[in-house]
Amino acid sequence: MRYSIFSLARNALTHHQHWPLAWRSPAPKPRYDAVIIGGGGHGLATAYYLAKEHGMSNIAVLEKGWLGGGNTGRNTTIVRSNYHLDPNAHFYEYSLKLWEGLSQELNFNVMYSARGVLNLVHSPADMDAAMRRGNAMRLNGIDARFLSRDEIAQWIPNLDCSANARFPIHGGLLQPRGGTVRHDAVAWGYARAADARGVDVIQQCEVTGIRVEAGAVVGVETTQGYIATPKIGIAVAGHSGQVAAMAGLKLPIESHVLQAMVTEPVKPVLDTVVTSGAVHFYISQSDRGELVMGGDLDFYNSYAQRGNLPIIEHVVAACLALFPSFGRMKLMRTWGGIMDMTMDGSPIIAKLPVNGLYMTGGWCYGGFKATPASGWLHAYTIAHDQPHPLNAAFTLERFAEGRVLDEKGAGPYPWAH
Amino acid sequence: MLLIPCPWCGPRNQIEFTYGGDATVQRPGNDAPEAAWEAFVYMRDNPSGPHDELWLHSAGCRSWFKLRRDTRTHDILGSARMGDELGGESP
Amino acid sequence: MSDQDRIASGIPVDPHAGPAPLVLAPIAIATAWNVQGDPTRAPFSDEVENLFGVRVPTVANTTVRGGTLLALWLGPRSWLLVHAAGAEASSSLMDFEAKRDALNAHGGALFDVSASRVAFTIRGAHAATVLAKNCPLDFHLRAFPVGGCAQSLFGHVNALFYRPEASSFTMMVARSFTRDAWDTLRASAAQYGGDVAPPP
Amino acid sequence: MTQPHRLPEGGIIDRTRALRFEFDGVQHEGYAGDTLASALLANGVHLVGRSFKYHRPRGIFSAGAEEPNALVQLSPASGARTEPNVKATMQALYDGLIAASQNCWPSVHFDVGAINNVMSCLMPAGFYYKTFMWPPTPKWWLKYEHVIRHAAGMGRAALAPDPDHYEHQYAHCDVLVVGGGLTGLAAAHTAAKAGARVILCDESAAWGGGVGDIGATIDDRPVDRWIADTVRDCARFDDITLLPRTTAFGYYDGNLVGAIERVTDHLSEPPAHTPRQRLWKIRAKSVVLASGAIERGIAYANNDLPGTMLAGAARTYARRYGVRPGTRAVVFTNNDSAYLTALDLHDAGVAIAAVIDARPASQLTRGLHQHARASGLAILPDSAIIGARGGRRVASVDVATLAGGRSTRVDCDLVCVSGGWNPAVHLFSQARGKLRYDEPLATFVPDISPLPILPAGAANGCFDPTAAVMEGRAAGAAAIPGAGMMASPHHSPRTNGVDGTALQPLWAVPATRRTAKRFVDLQNDVTVDDIALAAREGYVSVEHLKRYTTLGMGTDQGKTSNIIGLALMAEQLDLPIPKVGTTTFRPPYTPVTLGAFPGHETAAHVEPTRYSAMHDWHQEHGARFVNAGLWKRPHSYPRPGETEDDAANREARNVRTHVGLVDVSTLGKIELQGRDVAELLNRVYINKWDTLALGRCRYGVMLRDDGLVMDDGTTSRLSATHYLMTTTTVNAVRVMQQLEYLLQAEWRNLDVYATSVTEQWAAAALSGPKAREVLAKVMDIDVSNGAFPFLAVATCHVRTAQGLVPARAFRMSYSGELAYEIHVPADHGRAMWEAIIKAGDDAGIMPYGTEAMSTLRIEKGHVVIGPEADGRTTADDLGMGKLVNPAKWCIGKPLLARPALTAPDRWQLVGLTALDGARMPRAAKIVANPDHALPNPMLGHVTSWCYSPNLDAWIALALLANGRARHGEVLWALSPLANVRVRVKVGPPCFIDPEGARLRV
Ligand SMILES: Cc1cc2nc3c(=O)[nH]c(=O)nc-3n(C[C@H](O)[C@H](O)[C@H](O)COP(=O)(O)OP(=O)(O)OC[C@H]3O[C@@H](n4cnc5c(N)ncnc54)[C@H](O)[C@@H]3O)c2cc1C
Ligand SMILES: NC(=O)c1ccc[n+]([C@@H]2O[C@H](COP(=O)([O-])OP(=O)(O)OC[C@H]3O[C@@H](n4cnc5c(N)ncnc54)[C@H](O)[C@@H]3O)[C@@H](O)[C@H]2O)c1
Ligand SMILES: Cc1cc2nc3c(=O)[nH]c(=O)nc-3n(C[C@H](O)[C@H](O)[C@H](O)COP(=O)(O)O)c2cc1C
Ligand SMILES: [Zn+2]
Questions:
Q1: Which of C173, D91, D631, D754 is most exposed by smallest CB count within 10 Å?
Q2: In sequence order, what are the beta bridge partners of D725?
Q3: How confident is the model at residue D183, as a pLDDT?
Q4: Closest Cα of chain D to A203: distance in Å?
């Protein structure tokens, strides 16, 4: 059933008794043409584009828990393409273009809210870095503007723009097309659209082994039995290292916990996304009214989807340094997600050194915004057994070769990106 | 809020410490081949479970030491001075 | 403090605290030298004793007093030598270069860090409570006995604590952070009123 | 008449202290000891707010932290102290309190938003995913979103900065007892008596717990006396801390519990210097969780009308606050506990229209039921409320037997509901405790935890007062150090309270009309039908259920609703409840004020600020400061009428013509001693160090293990075995940590000791052609070129107003002029600085700041770690490839030869000069053709730039693809952000004195 205001009204007459399943819950078949591991946004998008763009429909997405229960369902929903290095800029810009039409493409409102992403700058050195990035964006054909302190003060009155603030605001780099997307809807929308094209979306099915014969994959062991397949796409975010190890591979990735938190909902007080690299903080207000905030990693390897107090203290301290009037609001919920931090902070969307094995991962803080393009390019790479020019730089081999894509120049310390 | 047993100072709050990464990657010899250095610099086991790692008691005695911590639970399984082996004993 | 007060304010009381509510004051450090070396090697520890008249403490977070000198444990191979409270500047912390060379010759090291830290005294019934507002150390007498020392944080700032008496602490912070630490100390102490010296 | 619904006697309120307060503009009166909710009820105010989605009228539902409905805006919304979403049930009343209802306009009685209730048929769970997609552009969603956002949200955030302050308190104890009900008091008392260090906290202001077992006796004493005695006894122990008004909100690793103490929120006038709230970080050896239990309701049509209340809450209002929450009540229950409510209300003079019990008559024969009958209460067995009627307050309920059949209408203005009790397992679950579904209680109870947390009493599913006290004592004893945590999780009989009659699970009463709304989550307006819809559409995992319907996502986090929701989902799926499971319990248990998290570390102290020893001098002499890491550094010293740029240009020019003095105290300084220092330096720097002579210094570059540049600086040899290394300001900590790591872990046999002396030495750089003549006046050594040549180092003294001060002098140059660095112990920093300034008076000395310093180094082509060495550059990219000593190993060298690090198109350091007299734009990108279609390929970028007062031109350093081969080319520097394009000429990075002659004069 197509979703629209008309179908909503029609169903209202029958008390919403007739809405169909958003997706089926099929039992796994013994064999698929391709299996995607991971039912987050990236895995589901991969399956959707494999079906849509490459005519493959005998494929399955295997999810060990519930759809979107990984980072897709726990991120701070910021989308943007304000990158400095060319391969990243082109990739994320492609993603942003896909976001712009995604609700219609999937017939599921993913609520792409182009409310702008503003990076604050707090020192002359910050300003140089931000403007260098903004200039690169513009030459790459991406929207970017630099706002003065006065323009920011007028636009966001609750931001402390005074000159004697501990982190005085010198200005900000704005990407107007950046914004937020309703995270859960992305998983659900892709799942529903992939299901409609015949993809089997299988929940509660954990991949426990990858069978490799003569240097090529032949199938996966799962908690629901063995499934044969000649092509496997790994899209498991924080668990990339674990799953790749099933095929005998080691990755330049460490898993770290990143926390996020929301306040109680209030009436609109913030109309854009504000981030600050210097104080390691980002914030937006969700449509329900909560302030959604995040900051740094907890700085040690972790697979526990929870974090510790010091980072929460730091995030809130940064929040109140920038927005002193939020001091009496209350924190309602905090949680964590497992990030696959690479050694250069950029992703890996590539063929792996086992035939038939592919991955999209290494998202660090920022893979939600990559979801459509990652799925699209992962699907392309799986279908053609070779990368598209847009992901040609995101190889696994780049580390050994020294072709790292280190936006921050932070070096091979995964927790530093 | 980890309670980290510094092998010198005893259990202390995590905010006194600086994380130093995987303790199992061995620094290759000076004339080791490039591939060994690449593996050392970039590749990680990244285990889900007990993880041997380096920490610096940066706001304390400034000792680097080894800690065994379960990455699934954050349980601390032991700590050892540099040069000693991690025994897996409970702290 | 009556039981009633204690319940109302929610402040743990140091049962051994003296009568003074709270005194904060900067104290001057004349000379502070950092000795480093391996205490298990006799040439080094003998030479330290020879030069300074103390054997440095090998138990973590303890101090040793030798005459006019106080040696604070900083790390397994690192100590801070300062004049003991009340002691006149003595000859043992003089002649830096000769002593450095002597220690270098015996597998140790000596660094002059006299100007690196600024010290405060925090004294009175609420001293431990005030410190514990910003420091994760356990200041209970069982955990931090008189004569003990420990390094930790005070707010954001690295700090070295020494406990000369049950209700008195010396806190040393790096000089460039002094204003920050002092502000935090003052703000934490404000609710007790008391005797606060002007900023250093 | 004020407080018309106050009972003539009873309760813990202080009737001698009347307090005035205002709600929605109307003045009322309550008593000390009241909550805002009890005071409102005493005044007959039931309608207090509007619901989140449908804007339905809502009243007070509970008497505690679980409150979903009665959320108010505290203090006028225009003030700085206003606070949204305050639970009226938790807010202590104080004199002059002002509160207002939320999420309604123009008023709570007539709310325009209630149109949503009329349109609700179009707004089932998740409706927004299905619509608002047309017209198909992102712009339209922004418009819809605008409307949706304004309808959503609840209270209003303050617009002015919070005037109050907050603080932290670390604490350590053997036993932390969470919850000061009977169980918690018993546990704390037992542990303290055994000599343990104990902290006992309770979220509420008074001890004794939530339900108030008034009438019960413990240890042969009436419960009130037992509570008072136990609290008094507890307070006598030396090592106990009692924390009322303190919520344990989160359980963190290492048995650390975060707790928030509301220090002054109950006072109209907080004492000066007292924090508003205090965040406790309690490191406990073990935790006794005595957090009680939370009652749940039952869903039936219009079960959200004001006047609908949890049965336990109604009892609490009557007994604890002496308030009559209604005049004519019905009690609707599936368990015994609500009979206490019926009896207590009856005693309080509330007419009990009926006790509607879902259980069959055959089960309602025990003492309590008999007691109720004997008191004349009508018990309707096998029955349920099928719907409630009323406008802004319940007026009647329709009652029918569960088997169906005709309903009867019962008039009432109060409905007390009890669907059972859920142990408050939140912290237990956060502590990785496993839960077990308990059939008799029809709820989840603690099972086992791998961590030292012991649930006891109602939190453990034990609802009998005497048994709870016993559990509390057992837990208190088991929790003390050495006891070994042996308390078994379930040692008392589990019954649903009072009389031990089984509870009969009843989650929702079947609907008789399709449009009727049966609410599960009152705050988020999630109904029984929404749950069915989620099931129908396949959102069947509890986590999908939560996210699709928003069940349990409100400020109450579903305390009264989650279990009902998942039981209903289990019914839909025909699964046992434990198979459906619960959603994750996350901190905080109840919402915590943001201000409490940073405590003192906020505003100016959000990060510490570091000041050099000369800071005050700079300030007194008009310096403008910039942040450099945590440091404040002088940017420039503008004179009257000068801009900062003018000042910097003047200062830079003066260095080239005369002499200038700059504060370089912030540079990292590390002293190294030992026999093997030179060997260490050889290994960490790319160049060679064993040849460094005593009294000399040298520049060095350090790489990371991956071969890219990490840091640079100089190292000087002060004695045969004593060296001083300098690092950049930003990398000081990192370099020190790396050296410590290498010495402690990798190269343990090196005889080297290191200490950071950044704080020990104040440092100033004196540069310019007249530097020597100035220096000569203050130094006690011969500074002639012969005696003190370029790169010489000396230990010496400076003559200052404080006398002769020990110093170190270094002849090195960053500016490219004849220059010296002088270090003195920091306590003499200012004296040294003033001495040099004074000595330089005749020579025309000026202080200069970081901006002039930057200009000078750009002219000279010196790189900075950051802009030029940006973490992606090699030493060769920066033109320092030749420094890499081929004869020795160093960190980073093994990976330097990788093809990508030696490729011909690498970005290399060059100098650029703006042509046509143009000004170099900020942070420009370099392209060959400014008119190339986008994307325009970038050849490189400008890293640092300035107006060079000495060359009278805009110049820059840049990283440029294959830059060294492009000297002489003309390219374009573009800043699309500033809409500027400039022709630039490529050349070598050094613009002044490339031979370095001036350094050596
Ligand atoms: C707190 C937080 C904030 C963030 N904020 C942002 C942001 O603002 N903007 C942004 O762009 N990005 C953000 N991110 C990053 C972003 O969420 C992720 O990069 C992105 O969602 C990754 O999507 P995914 O589909 O690859 O992974 P996931 O959504 O994690 O999906 C992977 C799935 O694989 C499953 N899986 C794992 N192992 C197996 C197995 N063996 N068998 C079967 N299934 C398996 C998991 O259960 C999981 O559902 C944030 C992340 C976090 C944690
Ligand atoms: N079905 C029933 O009959 C029933 C149900 C629940 C409770 N009870 C009563 O409960 C008694 C058991 O007493 P109890 O002490 O176990 O429970 P209790 O409910 O009396 O006390 C729990 C206390 O814990 C506090 N609390 C809860 N969470 C907290 C947190 N995170 N931080 C700080 N404080 C927190 C509450 O404010 C409350 O005061 C029994 O005697 C019984 O009368 C009965
Ligand atoms: C953008 C965003 C908004 C959220 N808003 C709420 C909210 O309003 N209420 C709530 O309880 N949780 C909210 N959450 C948090 C979720 O409840 C949940 O904690 C998170 O998705 C992680 O899942 P977990 O806690 O089940 O592990 C939000 C999460 C995200 C990512
Ligand atoms: Zn230590």
A1: D631
A2: D670, D715
A3: 96
A4: 10
Task: Give the CA angle between residues D927, D931, D935 to the nearest 5°.
Answer: 65
Which pLDDT does position C14 carry in this prediction?
38
Per-residue pLDDT of D734-746, as tens digits, reads: 999 999 999 999 9
Q: Alpha carbon of D122 to those of A11, A12, D353, D545: distances in Å?
A: 8, 6, 37, 19
pLDDT digits (tens, 9 = 90+) for D137-156: 999 999 999 999 999 999 99
User: Scanning the structure block, which residue is given the tokens 């368990």?
Assistant: D335
Q: Considering its fold, how many domains does chain B have in total?
A: 1
DSSP track, D776-836: HHHBSS--STTTS-TTBEEEEEEEETTEEEEEEEE---SSSSSEEEEEEEGGGHHHHHHHH
Q: Tell me whether residues D721 and C176 touch, CB distance under 8 A.
A: no
- The ligand that comes nearest to the alpha carbon of residue A372 is 1
Q: Ligand 3: which residue has its CA nearest to atom 13? A: D553
Boundary of a domain, candidates C115, C132, C165? C115
Q: Are the beta carbons of C78 and B62 separated by less than 8 Å?
A: yes
Whether residue A416 lies inside any domain: the answer is: no
What is residue D653's predicted lDDT score, i.e. its pLDDT?
A: 98
Q: Residues B27, B28, B30, B31: what is their CA dihedral angle, to the nearest 10 degrees? A: -170
Q: Which domain holds residue B13?
A: 3-26+37-81
Residue A23 lies in a domain: no
pLDDT at D136 over 70: yes
Dihedrals φ, ψ of D749, to 5°? -85, -5
Q: Where are the alpha helices (DSSP H) in D237-294?
A: none
Whether D527 has a pLDDT exceeding 80, the answer reads: yes
Percentage helix, strand, coil, to 5, in chain B?
15, 35, 50
**Domain-located, residue B17:** yes
Query: Are the beta carbons of C176 and D759 separated by less than 8 Å?
Result: yes
Among A331, A334, A398, A413, most D C-beta atoms within 10 A, so best to mutate, is A331
Per-residue buried b or exposed e for D604-641, using 16+ beta carbons within 10 Å of the residue's own CB: ebbbbbbbbbbbebbeeeebbbbbbbbbbbbbbbbeee
Q: Which amino acid is at D874?
A: T
Return the pLDDT at C83. 86
| Separation CA D517–CA D510 (nearest Å) | 11
Is the pLDDT score of B69 beyond 50? yes
The whole domain housing C145 covers 3-26+117-190
Contact D203, D290 (CB under 8 A): no
Atom of ligand 2 lying closest to residue D64 CA: 37
Instruction: Answer yes or no: do C10 and C39 share one domain.
Output: no
The tokens for D217 are 């006796």
| Pair C123, C143 in one domain | yes
Query: How far is D184 from chain C, CA to nearest CA, in Å?
Result: 16
Beta bridge partners of D711: D702
Q: Residue C91: left if φ>0, alpha if ψ -120 to 50, beta else—which one?
A: alpha
What is the rounded CA–CA span in Å between residue D446 and residue D66?
Answer: 19
- A168 and A264 in a single domain? The answer is yes
Question: Are A154 and A269 within one domain?
Answer: yes
Domain that holds residue A71: 31-77+183-252+344-401
In our burial notation (b when 16+ CB lie closer than 10 A, e otherwise), range D171-193 reads bbbbbbbbbbbbbbbbbbbbbbb
pLDDT over 90 at D405, yes or no:
no
The pTM (predicted TM-score) of the whole model is 0.97
Residue C195 in any domain: the answer is no
Residue A379 CA to residue A34 CA, distance in Å, equals 10
- Among residues A342, A362, A393, the one where a domain terminates is A342
Count of structural domains, chain A = 2
Residue C18 has pLDDT above 60, yes or no: no
pLDDT band at C88 (very low <50, low <70, confident <90, very high): low
CA distance C147 to C72: 9
The CATH number for B11's domain is 3.30.2270.10
User: Two tokens at C195?
Assistant: 């005797």
pLDDT of A371 over the 50 cut: yes
